[in-house]
Amino acid sequence: TNRTFTMIKPDATSKGHTGAILDQIIKAGFTVKAMKWTKLSTEKAGEFYAVHKERPFYGELVDFMSSGPIVAAILEKENAVADFRKLIGATNPAQAEEGTIRKNFAASVGENAVHGSDSDENAEIEGNFFFNFFERY
Ligand code: ATP
Questions:
Q1: What are the b/e assignments for 57-91, b being 16+ CB within 10 Å?
Q2: Per-residue model confidence (pLDDT) at position 53
Q3: Helix (H, G, I), strand (E, B) or coil at 135
Q4: Whose C-alpha lies nearest to ligand 1, atom 9?
Q5: In this structure, what is the dihedral angle of CA atoms 92, 94, 95, 101, given to the nearest 10 degrees?
Q6: The total number of structural domains that make up the chain
Q7: pLDDT tens digits, residue range 27-53?
Q8: What is the model's pTM?
Q9: Which residue minimizes the CA distance to atom 10 of ligand 1?
């Protein structure tokens, strides 16, 4: 068993997809270990995505991720990181497999409904970014 970290992004929360996305995540076998509804400041969004600072879409990404509410969560499942990335589908929803969360709910590569950590190490770092010791179990 291990953990991953996810965010339901502002496009999905604002379109009312939060419940359906959480339902799909839980039905796929993930257990929620911590969860919060919050909003990132541009400063916090910039910090979270600092690894992408040199990418051409960084400014757009930071503006988008601070444009509305998000849901942050720590999820547990065997093989969590890889299985969750499979569940969400390709970064670009046009290339995402049928039945994936991005295929079901995302509009574009920028506004792609959900985030999923890309490694166990980043899952830990990203979970700690949002949740202190008393907010996860
Ligand atoms: P995430 O880290 O959100 O799970 P990912 O690992 O699938 O996404 P990355 O290549 O790490 O994708 O990009 C991080 C995020 O940056 C993407 O989810 C998307 O929101 C945004 N992004 C990536 N490529 C583009 C692009 N060409 N234009 C606009 N935004 C982009």
A1: eeeebbebbbbeebbbbbbbbeebbbbbbebbbbe
A2: 97
A3: helix
A4: 91
A5: 70
A6: 1
A7: 999 999 999 999 999 999 999 999 999
A8: 0.96
A9: 91
- Which residue(s) pair with 37 in the sheet? 71
Round to whole Å and give the CA distance between 24 and 125: 24
The answer on pLDDT for 62 being more than 80 is yes
Q: What are the tokens at 44?
A: 């916090």
- Domain coverage including residue 83: 2-135
The interface predicted TM-score of the complex, written ipTM, equals 0.91
Can you give the CATH number for the domain in which 81 is found? 3.30.70.141
Ligand 1 atom showing the smallest separation from residue 90 Cα: 7
pLDDT of residue 90: 98
Residue 1 has pLDDT above 80, yes or no: no
69 within ligand 1 shell (Cβ under 6 A): no
Residues annotated in the binding site for ATP, as ranges? 9, 57, 85, 91, 102, 112
CA angle, residues 78, 24, 136, in degrees to nearest 5 = 55
Q: Ligand 1 centre from 33 Cα, in Å?
A: 25
17 noted as active-site residue: no
Q: Is 109 in the pocket of ligand 1 (CB under 6 A)?
A: yes
The model's pLDDT over 63-73, given as tens digits with 9 standing for 90+, comes to 999 999 999 99
